[in-house]
Amino acid sequence: MTESELPVQSVRSMPSRSRQLRALVALATVALLSACADTPLDTMAPESPIANEINNLFIGVGIVAIIVFVLVQGAVIYMARRFRVDAPDDEDDVYPDEEFPAQIHGNTRLEIGWTIVPTVIMAIVGFFTLGTLFNLDDVSASDDQQIEKVVVVGQQWWWEFQYHLDDDGVADIVTAGELVLPVGEEILLEVTSRDVIHSFWVPALNGKRDAVPGRSSPWTIEAGSVGRFPGECTEFCGLSHAYMEKWAVGLELADWKTWAANQMADATAPAEGTDAAAGWEVFSAQCASCHVINGLTSLNDTDAVDSVELYDGANRLIDKQTQVSGAAPNLTHIASRSSFAGGIFELYENVDEVDYLDLASAGDLNRGQLEAWIINAPEQKANAWDSPTGQRGMTPFEALSDDDVDNLVAFLMTLD
Fold it and tell me: What's the total number of domains in the chain?
């Protein structure tokens, strides 16, 4: 007798453990693969008071959930074994009629009990959850911080950070890909976007905050220790959403002041006759229509030079109408950063072995990856550089000669 000829009740009773096992294995595989990333994000390794509070709430709710799960599943397993009905020996038979066990419907004490107990549990969980949420929404920072605020701008597919060290409304530092913070200071962020909705998240330092076009969402962040902490965009935003990464970097206060002073200095042209000078010529011809180097790149072919005063939140750079992409990472001090390409590649191969401030002088340049990025960025990170509706990525430069690429790298490495 084939399966299709079996009585309906018998077919329904056929064991399907192998299919269930395969489904569970497939589900577990998908879950593990979806959790994989080039940059691991550890949500249970808090490095700030805010992240620690989130982690404590997660652990507490997790413990409650595990206890409830064990009790409920234990009761289900007990009842399944206690009141089990064996399948018939003959496959032509159906399950025999059996008397139902004693029912508890109408047992007032039990029904009140299993209504009140879950309500009390959820009320306790809700109390601590709301307390944590209220604390997270308190985005006021103290007045004695080194930074007035940082405007965080999401763009397909990278992050820009505009530092305001005072309240004059003009950015003092503009960087891309890395948010550098003095340890122990809670910094106010204003999170926004230039194009679509993104979401800012550095799990070791705080929870998530959406970056919405036309809206500035306040948030705070604090580095509790020295180090680099990975972050991701967590709102699906298009082609390279999975590669829209960033780093938060914690520095001791004295080191942060040194870093900030260096970032506020304009770049200077390399000495004539050097490889870097030849690279600057390549940059001027090929890259300056998108990228800004404070003190070097020109504005609309005038004598004025680019500066941080051109930045106005998520808006297009003021008067920089020739900029093809609307905005591109500021490269004024790219050699002082630990990553590039929206945070997905390390700029130095020994980045974890060298102090952050010494990267430009003591780091081993990841030259192969940097050159590959310059020659054909879309091959390294999918983008929409040739989109008819607007460029959203770096253009490939496959026509550059080997000497052009070498000179361009030499120039970029002077931008420390």
Answer: 1
